[in-house]
Amino acid sequence: MNFKHAAHRYKETNLVTRTEVEHVLVLLNECLCQTYLCEKAIQSEDRESLYACLTTAQQLLFELMATADRRTVEGERLLSFYAYLNQCLVQVRLNQKLAALHEVLEYLQEMIKSWEIAKQKSRQQNYTSEWI
């Protein structure tokens, strides 16, 4: 048996069958992890790690920007918010100040909580009926 091939197929299937809300949550959680790594890199004065983590976090924010529905007011607000978070990360890259990074961390945590609530509501709507 080829376990690497099976694991690869599982990951592909999982990625393709993920809902949009789940996809956003994965991106937000990974962005949060990268931001925590940025904080550690600033504290240890490791610029190379800091820049690598910032780059990854910014790429994740760009991916989140791509998921925002620009046809709605809410989508435009999300897009602006993600752009603001990206701008905060640019400030961190330039100044290596923890204050801007802590602001990003706080906002990401709040966004994750909000998207978790949206995920629960979506599941309730999609998987309950009047028969249950």
Walk me through this protein's architecture.
By secondary structure, the protein is an all-alpha fold. The protein has 5 helices and no strands. Helix 3 runs antiparallel to helix 4. The longest helix is centred in the C-terminal third of the chain and has 30 residues, at 98-127. The mean pLDDT is 88.
Keywords:
5 helices; 132 residues; mainly alpha; globular
What's the layout of helices and strands?
Elements: H1 3-16, H2 20-43, H3 47-67, H4 73-95, H5 98-127
Helix pairs in contact: 2-3, 2-5, 3-4, 4-5
**Helix percentage:** over 70%
The count of DSSP E runs of length 2 or more, i.e. the number of strands, is 0
**Unreliable stretches:** none
Distance between the termini: 42 Å
| Main beta sheet | none
Write down the overall mean pLDDT. 88
**Radius of gyration of CA atoms, rounded to a whole number:** 18 Å
Q: SSE order, as H and E?
A: HHHHH
Summarize this entry quickly.
This protein has 132 residues and is mostly helical. Helices cover 85% and strands 0% of the residues. The protein is globular and about 55 Å long.
